[in-house]
Design brief:
Chains: A mainly alpha, B alpha/beta, C mainly alpha
Oligomer: heterotrimer
Strand content of chain C: under 5%
Number of helices of chain A: 10
CATH topology of chain A: MetI-like fold
Number of strands of chain C: 0
Number of domains of chain A: 1
Distance between the termini of chain C: 59 Å
Order of helices and strands of chain C: HHHHHHHHHHH
CATH class of chain A: Mainly Alpha
CATH topology of the largest domain in chain C: MetI-like fold
Radius of gyration of chain A: 27 Å
Structural class of chain C: mainly alpha
CATH superfamily of the largest domain in chain C: MetI-like
CATH architecture of chain A: Orthogonal Bundle
Number of domains of chain C: 2
Largest interface: A-C, 52 and 59 residues
Largest sheet of chain C: none
Order of helices and strands of chain A: HHHHHHHHHH
Shape of chain C: extended
Chain lengths: 278, 277, 265
């Protein structure tokens, strides 16, 4: 039997590294916990418990009067409309930006030919624009627009148009670059205009993915529309915000249920559309 | 009685009959090799002994208890006294060898020790000792995914050695090792069994290893025991019958020409290996 | 003649779908009475220009920058603690949701996880403000609850797909169930868990900023406050700070992932 006599007290070589990591984690997490005012005891404070309990008790039964249900349905329709118009405008914004940014339709890159500097600079500028459009959350835009345009769906639609325009633009450009670019390049090399190269060379392959992503974004837009309602931009969100401010548990319960059903419906429509068009 | 199987049958849920009317018993300290062709039921037999599988017919008694008639707590404690070396070592790739070996005693350790060992290994010296017996101690702190198949099998054996069970079951424990290493590893298992007086049952595909190291050979064919004899009484014809389903020569692990041993086993436990990977 | 007819073929159902789509879009515009045309009047454009100009230059006075720093730290804390909470709660729910305790429990916990993640963070935030009062704790809880639904489902799927042999073998040698899991299954799925959590943290930092709009602390609450007082210049600073914070967290998350090694994605 071979006995390893070299080490009398064997040590774990990883131990020091792990201990350091643990210490660093504690040093970082402790102040974060304090800043986040992490205090589970508050949840059990008598007043908060009472408020919460009363509110939750109001959930059953949910408000089901014909009048209120009619209101909820109208708001749900409004939310759907906001998402649809928002995505449509976002599409309108995204398409020219995507075409400007994508390298698959660049004539100056063939060779490279004349105008390369200008085209590259333009692409860089548009790319930064897309980043800024995407970078600011849509809720922030909504908040600002509500100040300008007043309460109502217009603020949400514009906010969606801007942020989702940025998102769609970036993804469209990426899709156009990741599909097979040989057909388009061949067309460009034989002198056809960029529009034709797009329609005959890129779109046939890229269209399914583009459609699929756009429909997926529509689903997200519905959720975003509900959230924007909380800052006054219409739809189910605004209704829920009002109900919550009045601590009306029954109404909140109904709206939540309708919202969850709406999300399921959107999911089903989205799956169907993607199968049909892609 | 270390264990006792009485007319045990096992039919898999898909209808496949793995064992039929097997009666098999052993005294503490016996060393038994189970041989047979692929699909003969060796793994099923061992898993039955490990109380991992429940027989469809017949009775099982291990270490004086009937595993399927006792409470869950008692069954767990019974299982911690049985050690199984799996053919494919069930080791998570990202886990270090030291943790994998120490896991052998999880059935015995108190909960706080098992928990603390995750942070800092509770018994480095002990694990190293077992790994050293398999000539692998320099890999103690390596991750399992950095080891070859044969090395992983040795870690699996080390884990069972660390567990110090009263019954050692080994399911083709050396299938990924070269002949010299396989011989050496079986040697270690046999040494452990003899030193501590515990029962060892090993299923082996290679007949020469079985005949060389074990004083009792059980031949399994199509789920039934074909013979249960000491090596000197195992005839070449019996072996050919056993492996009739496999075409070609008898399966061997070594490269020397196959010769049936004509004298009884009397090897000393301290045999040294010739080479090692 | 026949060639021309063939050339004219197109997918009828696609055309139908597109037609329905177009009419739905038009109907949506009509339904909302957006009146976006009024935005194009000369007066409106002038107003718009003035409004945009009022945002610049952003307020970078020392006093306000300190407020922003505090808000940014709060937002960072909300996102970090919230994601951590989500990891713990998600893991706890993922165990039954992966089916190891039976089908009934699996269905029940999957339902709970779905509920948690279907309800948007903002809605959770308004609920948590009720339960915990205004401030960052509400935001932390909201993020924690919502994200635990997301992470819990991902964890459950990872657990279901992980090999059972290591933990089975340990139970075989008498290890208690909990330790068979800790020593056998967890080492295999931990890298995935951590990768998902880091990815969610990047999304959560954006969310944490917004939750302040309903009173859950951080940069969001500051922005809401400044905008309601029509302090556009200050609002602009906060928005820029939000952008920078998001970029910083993205970079940090990428660095941590690289530091933890290949398997962590």
């Amino acid at each position: 039997m071979l006995l390893n006599q070299a080490v009398a007290h064997p040590r774990d070589p990883d131990a020091r590294r792990r201990a350091t990591a643990l210490v660093v984690a504690i040093i970082v997490m402790w102040p974060l916990l304090v800043i986040a005012q992490f205090n589970p005891a508050i949840l059990f404070d008598a007043k908060n418990l009472a408020t919460m309990a009363a509110f939750l008790r109001g959930f059953v039964p949910p408000a089901l009067s014909a009048e209120f249900l009619g209101l909820v349905m109208k708001s749900a329709l409004e939310t759907l409309a906001i998402a649809t118009t928002g995505i449509t405008l976002a599409f309108v914004v995204a398409v020219p930006l995507a075409l400007a940014v994508t390298r698959s339709l660049s004539i100056s890159r063939i060779g490279p030919g004349p105008g390369l500097w200008r085209a590259t600079a333009l692409r860089a500028v548009v790319r930064s624009l897309l980043t800024i459009l995407r970078g600011v959350p849509e809720l922030v835009w909504a908040l600002v627009f509500v100040r300008v345009l007043g309460l109502g769906p217009a603020a949400a639609v514009l906010a969606l148009a801007i942020t989702y325009g940025g998102m769609l633009g970036k993804v469209y450009a990426e899709i156009l670059e990741s599909t097979d670019t040989a057909p388009a390049r061949a067309l460009l090399e034989s002198g056809s205009p960029q529009g034709a190269a797009l329609l005959y060379g890129l779109l046939p392959n890229a269209a399914p993915e583009i459609v699929s992503y756009s429909v997926y974004r529509w689903e997200c837009a519905i959720r975003a529309s509900v959230m924007m309602g909380f800052v006054g931009a219409g739809g189910l969100g605004q209704l829920m915000d009002q109900a919550m401010k009045l601590l009306n548990g029954g109404e909140v319960a109904t709206i939540l249920i309708v919202f969850l059903l709406l999300v399921q419906l959107a999911d089903a429509i989205s799956a169907h559309l993607r199968k049909q068009l892609a | 009685m270390s264990f006792q199987l009485h007319r045990v049958s096992l039919v898999h849920p898909n209808g496949q009959r793995a064992l039929s009317g097997v009666s098999f018993a052993a005294q503490p300290g016996e060393r038994i090799a189970v041989i047979g062709s692929s699909g003969a039921g060796k793994t099923t037999l061992l898993r039955l002994l490990a109380s991992a599988l429940r027989p469809t017919d017949g009775s099982v008694e291990v270490l004086g208890m009937r595993p399927w008639q006792i409470s869950a707590g008692k069954l767990r404690r019974l299982r911690s006294r049985i050690g199984m070396v799996h053919q494919a070592p069930p080791l998570p790739p990202r886990q270090r060898v030291i943790t994998a070996i120490l896991a052998g005693r999880l059935g015995v350790w108190p909960w706080w020790r098992s928990l603390l060992s995750l942070l800092y290994p509770a018994d480095i010296a002990g694990a190293r000792e077992e790994l050293a017996r398999l000539e692998l101690s320099d890999r103690l702190f390596d991750r399992c995914d950095g080891l070859s198949g044969g090395q992983l099998q040795r870690v699996g054996v080390a884990r069972v050695l660390y567990q110090k069970p009263e019954v050692i079951l080994a399911d083709e424990p050396v299938s990924s090792m070269d002949p010299a290493l396989a011989d050496y590893t079986i040697n270690q298992l046999v040494t452990e069994a003899t030193t501590r007086g515990v029962t060892l049952v090993a299923s082996l595909h290679a007949v020469d290893l079985a005949l060389r190291w074990f004083p009792r050979i059980v031949g399994l064919k199509a789920g039934e025991i074909a013979f249960d004899l000491p090596p000197v009484r195992v005839t070449e014809q019996a072996l050919r019958d056993l492996y009739a389903s496999e075409s070609g020569p008898l399966p061997l692990h070594g490269e020397e020409p196959f010769v049936l041993p004509t004298r009884a086993l009397g090897r000393d436990a301290g045999r040294r290996k010739s080479s090692c990977s | 003649m026949r060639d021309e007819a063939k050339a004219f073929q197109f997918c009828l159902s696609c055309a139908l779908t597109l037609a329905v789509l177009a009419s739905v879009i038009v109907a949506s515009f009509g339904y909302l009475h957006l009146g976006l045309e009024r935005l194009l009047s000369a007066e409106a454009i002038a107003d718009m220009r003035n409004f945009i100009v009022s945002f610049f230059p952003p307020d970078v006075s020392a006093g306000f920058l300190r407020k922003i720093a505090r808000g940014a730290l709060e937002t960072l804390a909300i996102s970090a603690v919230g994601t951590l909470l989500a990891m713990m709660l998600g893991l706890m729910l993922a165990l039954p949701a992966s089916g190891r305790y039976g089908r009934a429990l699996r269905a029940a916990t999957r339902f709970v996880l779905n509920l948690l993640r279907s309800i948007p963070e903002l809605v959770w935030a308004t609920l948590m403000v009720l339960a915990a009062g205004l401030g960052p704790f509400a935001g932390t809880l909201a993020l924690g609850l919502h994200t635990s639904g997301v992470l819990g489902r991902l964890f459950a799927e990872a657990l279901e797909n992980s090999p059972a042999e290591p933990s089975d073998a340990l139970r075989q040698s008498g290890a208690p169930r909990a330790f068979a899991f800790l020593y056998g299954t967890l080492p295999g799925v931990l890298p995935q868990f951590v990768a998902y959590a880091l990815y969610r943290w990047e999304m959560n930092i954006r969310m944490a900023a917004i939750l302040g709009f309903v009173g859950a602390g951080g940069l969001g609450q500051l922005l809401y406050y400044e905008l309601s007082l029509l302090h556009q210049a200050q609002a602009c600073s906060v928005i820029i700070a939000m952008l920078l914070l998001t970029l910083a967290v993205d970079a940090l998350s990428a660095k941590v992932r690289k530091g933890l090694g290949r398997a962590y994605g």
